[in-house]
Amino acid sequence: MHLGHTHPAPAALSADARRPDGARRALRIGLGGPVGSGKTATVAALCRALRDALSLAVVTNDIYTREDAEFLLREAVLPPERITAVETGACPHTAIRDDISANLEAVEDLEDAVGPLDLILVESGGDNLTATFSKGLVDAQIFVIDVAGGDDIPRKGGPGVTTADLLVVNKTDLAPHVGSDLARMAADAKAQRGELPVVFQSLRGESGVADVAAWVRERLAAWTA
Amino acid sequence: MSRAALLVLADGRFPAGGHAHSGGAEAAVRAGRVTDAPSLEEFCRGRLHTAGLVAAALAAAAVLGADPGELDAAADARTPSPALRAAGRRLGRQLLRAARATWPSAELDAVARRFPKGTHQPVVLGLAARAAGLAPEDAAHCAVYESVSGPATATVRLLSLDPFDAAGVLARLAPELDRVADCAVEAARRAADEGADALPAASAPLLEVGAEWHAGWPVRLFAS
């Protein structure tokens, strides 16, 4: 394809790996999972862990407010121009799976406005266990559940738990208080996911988001290789 | 032309961003103007004969080959609310993406280059119909149907309205949709000779006022 300066290609359609100017676009990673499982907290921790080494931006998909975007702004994890909120019309899974056009615009506009970017995190609105991201929107997805939501969630499976590229079991520090059996959750996740990775995480613990950040760095290395 | 192509374009699940918009229904529900199926029907009727008619004429004119820049300016002039102009452009940009992927055409690519942040949704709807090999009548029908189906499905979510009642509202409006689409096509054909000023300029002040009010809410289910 001709990519000269006088006739730039029109805007990208979906997951095209190159931008209209021919440059490689940022890696896009989606974070989904039930309401309250710690998606926004994980995004905030990832931004703090990666922002010194990488050029980052975040798209949030709030269900009926701008609370997630405002939390990230208040916490000042990134400059405000690197955080965009998408409105989802009461249907968070539609905006990340069935009709991804608003989210595609948000990621492309971020690259236009503050790029070049290495990584864009797309956070879904809190949803149910069937919510997954379209491959037209993200290159990899993280599904975040927490121990307080019930230790039977890995056993129940569903598309998020079963197929996400990374499953994060969050708030492990709460396990003794809510009677969740971490060993059982790990065994159930293994049975559902086979070789796909699982991270048990407590953002209040010493290692915090380190394992997830390391996984993101691996994905980025593969993307830019 | 293929009649089924019209079904693809008109399908509520066509991935062009419409699901996040209520067509003014969220503001009307909050204001107490839409409370049940009969008031939804009146709301839809009002929208059909104003915003629906204008959108259908713009779409039909685009199918007939009118200049998209002239139609974009005509749409701006017929949309007093800045929030509605922004929503119309955003939806146009989203529809253009979907249409380019669905019916690849040099004409659609050229429009994407010319309007990188989007032109008004009805203009893109007409260009998409043209790329799909459809007629002005098809684009007009698609536009009038969207003008009422969006608010109807949004109201099902907003009021927990019985979905069968909402479908009944749409079915009762169908003969009126046909008549408005015919008027729109007639105007678009006139505009082909006389210019965009011949396109209808019907406006619903409460829709425009409601859109500005809605845009200022901190908490809402729909983007417009």
UniProtKB/TrEMBL annotation, chain A:
Residues 1-20 are annotated as: Disordered. Its main location: cytoplasm. GTP binds at G33, P34, V35, G36, S37, G38, K39, T40. Residues 29-199 form the CobW/HypB/UreG nucleotide-binding domain. One of its GO terms (molecular function) is GTPase activity. Keywords: Chaperone, Cytoplasm, GTP-binding, Nickel insertion, Nucleotide-binding. It comes from the Bacteria. One of its GO terms (cellular component) is cytoplasm. It is found in: Cytoplasm. One of its GO terms (biological process) is urea catabolic process. Belongs to the SIMIBI class G3E GTPase family. UreG subfamily. Facilitates the functional incorporation of the urease nickel metallocenter. This process requires GTP hydrolysis, probably effectuated by UreG. Homodimer. UreD, UreF and UreG form a complex that acts as a GTP-hydrolysis-dependent molecular chaperone, activating the urease apoprotein by helping to assemble the nickel containing metallocenter of UreC. The UreE protein probably delivers the nickel. This is Urease accessory protein UreG. The gene is ureG.
UniProtKB/TrEMBL annotation, chain B:
Its main location: cytoplasm. It is found in: Cytoplasm. Signal peptide: none annotated. One of its GO terms (molecular function) is nickel cation binding. Keywords: Chaperone, Cytoplasm, Nickel insertion. It comes from the Bacteria. One of its GO terms (cellular component) is cytoplasm. Gene3D superfamilies: Urease accessory protein UreF (1.10.4190.10). Pfam families: UreF (PF01730). Required for maturation of urease via the functional incorporation of the urease nickel metallocenter. Belongs to the UreF family. UreD, UreF and UreG form a complex that acts as a GTP-hydrolysis-dependent molecular chaperone, activating the urease apoprotein by helping to assemble the nickel containing metallocenter of UreC. The UreE protein probably delivers the nickel. This is Urease accessory protein UreF. It comes from Streptomyces argyrophylli. The lineage of its organism: Bacteria, Bacillati, Actinomycetota, Actinomycetes, Kitasatosporales.
